[in-house]
Amino acid sequence: MAAKTLLFNEEARRALERGANAVANAVKVTLGPKGRNVVIDKKWGSPTITKDGVTVAKEIELDDPYENLGAQLVKEVASKTNDVAGDGTTTATVLAQAIVNEGLRYVAAGGNPIALRRGIELAVEKAVEELGKRKIEVTDKAGIAQVASISGNDTEIGNLIADALDKVGKDGVITVEESKGTETTLDVVEGLQFDKGYISPYFVTDPERQEASLDNPLILIFEKKISSAQDLVPLLEKVSQSRRPLLIIAEDVDGEALATLVVNKLRGILNVVAVKAPGFGDRRKAQLEDIAVLTAGRFITEDLGVKLTGVTLEDLGSAKKVTISKDETILVEGGGAADAVKGRVEQLRRQIDNTDSSYDKEKLQERLAKLSGGVAVISVGAATETELKEKKHRFEDALSATRAAVEEGIVPGGGATLVSLIPALVGIGETDDEKVGASIVRRALEEPLRQIAANAGLEGSVVVEKVKNLPQGHGLNALTEEYVDLIAAGIVDPAKVTRSALQNAASIASMILSTNSLVVEKKDKKGGSSNGGGHDDDDY
């Protein structure tokens, strides 16, 4: 085992404080509409220019191992808030710094850190409770656009995200991609889309667009590979008599079976297209079951004891239109009963709530979107690669914040809501130490507004006192330097973002305050850690 070095008591807490301040000071300059950019050097490629708190925080590593522990803890505040709410990382960092700095001053003077922590927790509980009473539900497109515009620092971003959510619904999937041009565009795929195209180019009906289009087709959903023409012919004869096109979705179609389909297609006997089933393993099964529900078809699987030769027209699904390209298939207006689709959607929602894996959750969310709304793709364009990365990141942040707003509602932004919570926290705590803990939270709640004002070139303390005396919901518009009704001016924050920022900041800050010793690996003479973890001699 590698040798360790230790630091205790006040020295340990001060080292954590220096590390926490290093991260917070770098991050907080980005807060508010007049926040500054941070340029981050990259070992490879062009530097990153960003106004996103968590992006800045993630890049910071300090030389001093003790201080670096403090830095990593504050980075945890930012990343946890980002994971839960998708925004509010800078606010969370500023709150954590304020609680740490004020709290350590009191602990150094002999205060009890455990009682102090209890006071902080009680104050945060009360603040979150008050926040819940003040949130406003967001239902209209204008409200969604406001939230996205504030988070992305751009009305274009806000309007595009509002359009996307309007078209695909709150359960819809919205993906943000890099465009090859300078224009930023929104494309919406109606219906159920999956990333598998036609198996053979002979199925194409529109040579110019290299697409196959089927109107009112019957749909066979089959679990296994189809190789034998003999198994397929009875079904093809039945479909041919119905004079409707046929879409076959199966693990694969090859050999005699594929040749038979192509010949029937080319001779004009049957308009047919075969595509491979999406996904793999259990996920493939689940997606095929989704398609079966959406199209009112039967998922033909050997588990049911049904063979291909026994399939009837009643087992086939249908859709108003199916478009198949080389890479994807889109089913529009499946023939499934609304109640059946709704039941499947509810089942997926329950699975999303019950799963702990973020990957599983993401895949379930995609399936839910395809069943319930559709898929919107925002292609972000910019003149340079550096600008493109920064703009794409702002779109992703704004999208997360917007989803949070739809989920838990909004509150007035600009740091004013946190300041308005202060009176509700008076009188919290039974012991003196607990009361001090609550007062530390009250003081910390002023800091985001103070920082927004400072970044706008104003005197923070003057602005805080002014906002305290304004009616609830009024505050500073840092862009115009006017005091306004924040909701009316469109300056809003998702309640979930504000709540997560406060809870995560208090959690990590409380841990720092109640820390008494630090243990780090001893560095060797070259400056690396004794197990080879250092990077001082990395020359490339």
- Could you say which structural class the secondary elements and strand pairing correspond to? alpha/beta
CA radius of gyration: 29 Å
Specify the helix fraction band: 40-55%
Q: Total domains, how many? A: 3
CATH class of the largest domain: Mainly Alpha
* Biggest pleated-sheet summary: 8 strands, mixed
Question: What does this entry look like structurally?
Answer:
It comes from Capsulimonas corticalis. ATP binds at residues 30-33, 51, 87-91, 414, 477-479, 493. Forms a cylinder of 14 subunits composed of two heptameric rings stacked back-to-back. Interacts with the co-chaperonin GroES. It is a single chain. The chain is built from 18 helices and 21 strands. The chain starts with a strand and ends in a 19-residue tail after the last strand. It has 3 domains: 4-136 and 411-521, GROEL, domain 1 (Orthogonal Bundle); 141-189 and 374-408, TCP-1-like chaperonin intermediate domain (GROEL, domain 2); 193-336, GroEL (3-Layer(bba) Sandwich), CATH 3.50.7.10. The relative contact order is 0.18. Helix 1 packs across helix 3 (65-85), helix 5 crosses helix 15 (432-444) and helix 8 (229-242) packs parallel to helix 9. It has 540 residues and is an alpha/beta fold.
Q: Would you kindly provide a brief summary of this structure?
A:
With about 550 residues, the chain is of the alpha/beta class. It is built from 18 helices and 21 strands.
Which short descriptors sum up this protein?
three-stranded mixed β-sheet; 18 helices; disordered C terminus; alpha/beta; GROEL, domain 1; single chain; GROEL, domain 2; 3 domains; 540 residues; GroEL; eight-stranded mixed β-sheet
